[in-house]
Amino acid sequence: MEKNHTVAITAGKNNLNEHRQIHRQIHIGEKPYSCDSCRKSFTSKSSLNRHRQIHAGDKPYSCDLCGKSFTENSSISKHRQIHTGEKPYSCDQCGKSFTWKNNLKRHQRIHTGEKPHSCDYCGKGFSSKRSLNRHRQIHTGEKPYNCDLCGKSFIWKNNLKEHRRIHTGEKPYSCDHCGKSFTWRSYLNQHRRSHTGEKPYSCDLCGKTFRSLNEHRRLHTEQPYSCDYCRKSYTTKKSLNKHRQIHTGEIPYSCDLCGKSFIWKNSLTEHRQIHTGEKPYSCDHCGKSFTWRNYLNRHRRIHTGE
């Protein structure tokens, strides 16, 4: 009995020494255990063994709610919170809650301004390692996400997802004022300002305000697109193409109700409102509605005295 007790004490001391050794390696940065598949290094042998399961495809731990499998048991506990809606980690600054502790830690950097991850090319700081890795691709020129329909490549996955909508015709962003749909959220935000009359962007050269400033700035700096009929120049290719229709006599947009044709799609859209009786432009002072925006703008002057 005494011998067994001595063995147990010796085993306990060995385990304690092993944990001390592993802990010391955290401070000195030593990672003596290397994966023979990808050469990634680890502080402890148990961490290496867990990592090896990634290469082996071994996922012995399954979620009893959806059947998804995981390499580690601890991953299941985190995953289950998606099903339960549990968010045990709360920000003490704004009260926002998170499922995982790491997400809370990243979020808190918004409040502290901490950016611990720096780009070794330009020195720019980032709050998360993921943001840094995405930024690095700007310097390396790496574009790992390819469109399987046209072959165009993108730095970020989100950009590829948005690009695919050009091929699919998907328009997931709808205006809550008039129901018009858009491919990209930025286009929806810009469109909404046509209803509100908001013009948040001011030109620092002429002081004029706009819903979107990019195209206007080119008026002051450049007009790279020239008409080969009259040499008139435009800031965008779209504007040039619309202008060319004046020379060619092309009137591609026809009303399916009365047959009237228009050079521009916007003109057809506004014309259709005569038939439908739609009045999407409302005065925020008195609520009166108008078929066309320019009628609303003229009406507003009654209230402003402009």
From TrEMBL:
<keyword id="KW-0479">Metal-binding</keyword>
<protein>
    <recommendedName>
        <fullName>C2H2-type domain-containing protein</fullName>
    </recommendedName>
</protein>
<dbReference type="GO" id="GO:0045596">
    <property type="term" value="P:negative regulation of cell differentiation"/>
</dbReference>
<feature type="domain" description="C2H2-type">
    <location>
        <begin position="281"/>
        <end position="306"/>
    </location>
</feature>
<dbReference type="GO" id="GO:0005634">
    <property type="term" value="C:nucleus"/>
</dbReference>
<keyword id="KW-0804">Transcription</keyword>
<dbReference type="Pfam" id="PF00096">
    <property type="entry name" value="zf-C2H2"/>
</dbReference>
<feature type="domain" description="C2H2-type">
    <location>
        <begin position="173"/>
        <end position="200"/>
    </location>
</feature>
<feature type="domain" description="C2H2-type">
    <location>
        <begin position="225"/>
        <end position="252"/>
    </location>
</feature>
<keyword id="KW-0863">Zinc-finger</keyword>
<dbReference type="InterPro" id="IPR013087">
    <property type="entry name" value="Znf_C2H2_type"/>
</dbReference>
<keyword id="KW-0677">Repeat</keyword>
<feature type="domain" description="C2H2-type">
    <location>
        <begin position="145"/>
        <end position="172"/>
    </location>
</feature>
<feature type="domain" description="C2H2-type">
    <location>
        <begin position="253"/>
        <end position="280"/>
    </location>
</feature>
<keyword id="KW-0805">Transcription regulation</keyword>
<feature type="domain" description="C2H2-type">
    <location>
        <begin position="33"/>
        <end position="60"/>
    </location>
</feature>
<feature type="domain" description="C2H2-type">
    <location>
        <begin position="61"/>
        <end position="88"/>
    </location>
</feature>
<dbReference type="GO" id="GO:0000977">
    <property type="term" value="F:RNA polymerase II transcription regulatory region sequence-specific DNA binding"/>
</dbReference>
<dbReference type="GO" id="GO:0000981">
    <property type="term" value="F:DNA-binding transcription factor activity, RNA polymerase II-specific"/>
</dbReference>
<keyword id="KW-0539">Nucleus</keyword>
<comment type="similarity">
    <text>Belongs to the krueppel C2H2-type zinc-finger protein family.</text>
</comment>
<dbReference type="Pfam" id="PF13912">
    <property type="entry name" value="zf-C2H2_6"/>
</dbReference>
<keyword id="KW-0862">Zinc</keyword>
<feature type="domain" description="C2H2-type">
    <location>
        <begin position="117"/>
        <end position="144"/>
    </location>
</feature>
<dbReference type="InterPro" id="IPR036236">
    <property type="entry name" value="Znf_C2H2_sf"/>
</dbReference>
<dbReference type="Pfam" id="PF13465">
    <property type="entry name" value="zf-H2C2_2"/>
</dbReference>
<dbReference type="GO" id="GO:0008270">
    <property type="term" value="F:zinc ion binding"/>
</dbReference>
<feature type="domain" description="C2H2-type">
    <location>
        <begin position="89"/>
        <end position="116"/>
    </location>
</feature>
